[in-house]
Amino acid sequence: MILSNCDFDWIKYLPQGWKLTKVKHQFFFSEIETNDFNSYPVLSLTMSGVIERNSESNEGQIPESYEKYNLVDPSCLVFNPMDLISGWVDVPNISGLISPSYRAIKLNSENLDLHFIKYYFQSLYKEKILFHYGEGVHYEYRWGLGKETLKNFPIPQPPIDEQVEIVSFLDKKTKTIDDLLVKINQKIDLLEEQKKIQIIDVITKGLNQNIEKKDSGIKWIGKIPKHWELIRLKYLFSIEGGKDPKNIQDDQGQYPILGTGGEINKGSEFLYDKPTLLLGRKGTIDKPYLFNTPFWVSDVMYYTIQKRDVSPKYLYLLFKIIPFKRYCYGSAKPSMRRLDYENMFFPIPPINERKAIMDYIDEKISLFDKKILIEEKRIKLLKEYRLSIISEIITGKKRVVS
Q1: Taking the complete model, does pTM exceed 0.85, yes or no?
Q2: Among 64, 302, 334, 354, which lies 20 to 30 A Cα-Cα from 57?
Q3: Rounded CA gap, 52 and 46, in Å?
Q4: Per-residue pLDDT at 371
Q5: CA distance 352 to 168
């Protein structure tokens, strides 16, 4: 993209003494390759920074060779130019190899602080400013920041001593906010755990804790009321696999394709339009999903068809308490076969008790969900506050000069 005629509103009015410069006048692209692959860790750019990739977990794509990987170090600023929606930019803490799909630039000037520029570009990613300068096939596909665009991108340049002061202030301020965010997330995790315990207790023991119990024979279920049944899933629901789109016809409306993230026109012979519980087949299998409107389900998921009077919602509550690690296979990409699901045992009370249990859980869960929602709103506000502070200070709208 040619930037000569662009109006950069976010840095239109810089404080007196600040200059406007360009990336190409202060940085050079670092594309250092090495044959000494075993001497360096492989790095990955994440929203938590440039971190060492865990090769044992097999997460992400593993290349056949690291021959084209670039060597970066703490003097580099690393960009993800291929994702201007959720991408990021950061400074590595250590030297290491990084994918050639990333871009790394190094300072060629003593008049800029690298971490000042890091905060600047992070704010541009967060505020989706870089998105407007992207180029590619389509903004939803391969929409990235071109090399020439990055070279000519404007950057504010306060006096170097003010940059250092800004970085020091933002480091302290963001650490305070981040520490608070960690505590709030820990509180949410605790609330989620307490909610799960409430569900487990009622869904396996019922509302009358003093009733006579029997051993279920299943460790994670334990003892259940004596009059409850223990039934395999295949007698309660059919487990059906999704299919790839076929025979698509133009029709009315759009429905989500669950499992792939796209959308498809109504008209497919495999469109499902009844309440169901969606179950993972590969990858994320521990997050069952209750769905009540028409949808297309892809072949990476299963969907359930009700056989008896046990509702998909009650089945959802049962699946919320299952220790999936006992049933799945594969560590890098956990998977579940249809047979694994079909042979799971579940404690099933009489229908009147199921209704009472669902009502009780709905009431209890709503109390936990309200508390969790409050904390999630706090997180949102703190993140917005964090972003506004960085944006205002890094562009000179607010000053931190002593």
Answers
A1: no
A2: 302
A3: 10
A4: 96
A5: 63
